[in-house]
Amino acid sequence: MTESSRVSDAGRSESAALFDSGNPGLGLRTYHTRGEPLKAPRGDEAAKRRGARGWTMLAMSIRGPPDPRRVSAERTQPAMEAVMSPPSFTVGIEEEYLLVDPDSRDLIREAPPTMLAACEKALQDQVTPEFLQCQIEVGTRVCASIAAARDDLAHLRRTVAAVAREHGVRVIAASTHPFATWGMQKRTSKERYEIIEQDLQEVVRRLMISGMHVHVAIEDDDLRIDLMNQVVYILPHLLALSTSSPFWQGHETGLKSYRIAVWDEMPRTGLPAHFDSFGEFERHVNVLVSAGLIEDGTKLWWDVRPSVRFPTLEMRMCDICTRLEDTICITALYRCWLHMLYRLRMNNQRWRFYGPMLVNENRWRAQRYGIDRGLVDFGKGAVVPYAELLEEILSLVREDAEHFECVAEVEQAREVLARGTSAHRQLATYHDALSRGASDREALEAVVDMLIEDTMYGL
């Protein structure tokens, strides 16, 4: 990696000397506080209640403009005020599946009337409908380990697939369907979805896409915001490992993640803004709430966001992985990266901030090429092969993977790199079928068959 130049930070006092160190190409930055132990500011104590899946649910204080006296106090209080308790780093995973007719291989337009109830009977609150009837969502319990997350998610996939099969339906874990058309899909009858459709119109009707969301618990409000600012850097690298949406409405799009192109038509998507504190984040949300534009922070659909329901940092950038092991790999990498950032903070270091202009270039490259063409190393000012970047990432989080006992899971990324993502396997299946004389439709149906099988791979 190249040596980065000295940086300054106008947001900190003159007493804090900041400079780049460590692996400057990726962006380590160190700051000293005159020998004092590193401390974090206290966030306001939020109202709390017990969540159904095990996390303490948070009720964010979004009640109009904040008291000016409070704002002033927040701006003048010391930056390092109280020693924080270590985050728990517990994890949770949400996956959205597409529902397929096994005969036509197309998406179903209407969900079987008793299917959701049967899923709820088996999985209780861990399964929910989605915006379109051709979708269904599952979410794990709060998991203390990656192994526990894998076991729970495997149970969810198996159960939903079994119930679907009983109702004459198949499940695929892919972010787009190879040939289904969005204009044929029916919305789920639910008040929240009706309101969203009235508000967003054709933009939301096109959301014939599925994703996965990974939650990692960071209980301290201000630490959650600080880590969100820093973790943005690595999100394109995770997207590249997850790609599963190369087709859209029967066309080979040329993108490994066409889902991102569809999703970006929605408002309040993309990379999050940079916030100096949880209070500043709340004030920004309050502006939108007070103006009547959104009900709460759940309408912020950023690539990573502080969850409104849970004390977690929710990563939303990735495509859903067709193979379960790839989902677990990305979950482990995200968790370990956050732990690495926290570990740096405890050593008076932090990840260097790169603006959206730069990170969005890697976001686009991951969307377009996945793992094939490399991403930009901003320290070098050059595109670096993904394999080289991955080895550096694995080296940086090795200590954290050992701490969480998930070395094998993070190193699964090498296997993904060797065999390709779901997008690669879909394209290979499609072109192989064409080379053997299949029609375009038959080749796309072969992709659906592959996705049905791969969704259950290893389960």
Radius of gyration: 22 Å
Indicate the structural class: alpha+beta
Number of helices: 16
- Which word captures the global form? globular
Beta content comes to 5-15%
**Could you say what the CATH topology is called?**
Creatine Kinase, Chain A, domain 2
Distance between the first and last residues' Cα: 40 Å
* Secondary structure: number of strands: 18
Q: Helicity range of the residues? A: 40-55%
Total tally of structural domains: 1
Structure keywords:
single chain; 459 residues; alpha+beta; Creatine Kinase, Chain A, domain 2; 7-stranded antiparallel sheet; 3-stranded antiparallel sheet; 16 helices; 41% helix; 15% strand
Secondary-structure blueprint:
Layout: E1 17-20, E2 28-32, E3 47-50, E4 56-59, H1 68-76, E5 91-100, H2 115-123, E6 127-129, E7 135-139, H3 146-166, E8 170-172, H4 191-200, H5 202-205, E9 212-217, H6 221-231, H7 235-242, E10 247-248, E11 251-252, H8 258-263, E12 269-270, H9 278-290, E13 301-302, E14 304-306, E15 312-315, H10 324-346, E16 349-351, H11 356-369, E17 375-377, E18 382-384, H12 386-396, H13 398-404, H14 407-419, H15 422-435, H16 440-455
Parallel strand pairs: 12-13
Antiparallel strand pairs: 1-2, 2-16, 3-4, 5-7, 5-8, 5-9, 6-7, 9-15, 10-11, 14-15, 17-18
